[in-house]
Design goal:
Helicase, Ruva Protein, domain 3; two-stranded antiparallel sheet; 2 domains; Rossmann fold; 11% strand; binds zinc ion; alpha/beta; globular
Length: 303
Amino acid sequence: MKGQAKAKRALEIAAAGYHHLLMVGSPGSGKTMLAKRLPFLLPPLSQEAALEVSRIHSAAGQVLKGLVRTPPFRAPHHTVSYAGLIGGGAIPKPGEVSLAHRGVLFLDEFPEFSRDALEALRQPLEDGVVTASRAKASLTFPARFLLVAAMNPCPCGWYGDPERACTCTPASRQRYVGKISGPLLDRFDLVVEVPRLTPAELARAPKGESTEAVRERVLRARERMLSRQGRPNGELAGRALREHVHLSQGAEDLLQAAAKQLLLSARSYDRLLRVARTIADLQGSHGVEEGHVAEALAYRKTL
Ligand SMILES: [Zn+2]
C-alpha cells in the first residue's frame, strides 16, 4: 500500500506497545487495508497464549486443525448482535471480543455500532475479561485484544476532504462523533487522521518500508518491554507507568508545556507517556527523549 506514512507508523506503534488505535478518515482512504496489515506486524503467540486462544475458538464451536499460532484478526460488522460481540446466548458462547483475544478486534464504522455494544467494550478494555450473563448464570471469558476502530469524520463521510464537499450540518456531525463517549475515547492511546489521497497524490506517494522491516522493529521493541516490565507499554498505568518512563529534561519540559497548552487531563497525559515510551522502545532508547514526546503528540487528533 502506498502513502499514509503517518497511519502506518501509528500501526507500528500500536503493534509494538499494544496501544488501541482509532483511525478517522473518508471512505476510500484505506483504513480497512491498513488495519489488515496489523496481524502481520504483531509478535507470534506464545505457547501459553496459543493454548488459550485455541480453547476460546473451540468453545465458540470452531473446528481447529491445530493450535492457533497467529494473533487472531476479527472484524465484525456494525450490525453484529450484542451477544455476538460481547458473548452470551442461551448456551453462553464467547463473542467477538473473546475471539479477538491476544489479537486484533477491528471495528469499522465505529459510531454505527449500538450504544450498548460500544459501552460494553469498556469492561474488557479495562480488565481483559468479559462477563456474559444470562438469567441464572454468568460466565467470564478472556478478552484482551488490540482494538482498532475506524470511522468517517462525519455522517456523509467527506468532512475535510480536499475534493468532495461535506453535506452535514455541524449539529449532525456533533451527534455522530458524540456516539463515542468520553470514557470510551479515553481508551485509545492513538487517534490518527487517515486522509483520502487524490489519484495524483497516490501516484507520487512513496511505497514505504517493507512489512518485514517494520515487523523486525516491532519484535525488538516488544522484547525490550517484556524484559523491562513483563507487559507491553499499552498496559502500563499509574505508578508502574511512571516507574518505567525515564524522561529527559527536554522531554519533561515539552510534556509540561503541552499539558498546560492543551489542558491535558490526567488520562491524556498518561496516554502520551505510554506512546512516547513505545516510540523510544522502537528506537532502542532506554530513556524517553524530547523527540519521542514530540512524535507522540502527533497521534492525538481531536474528533
Ligand atoms: Zn459530512
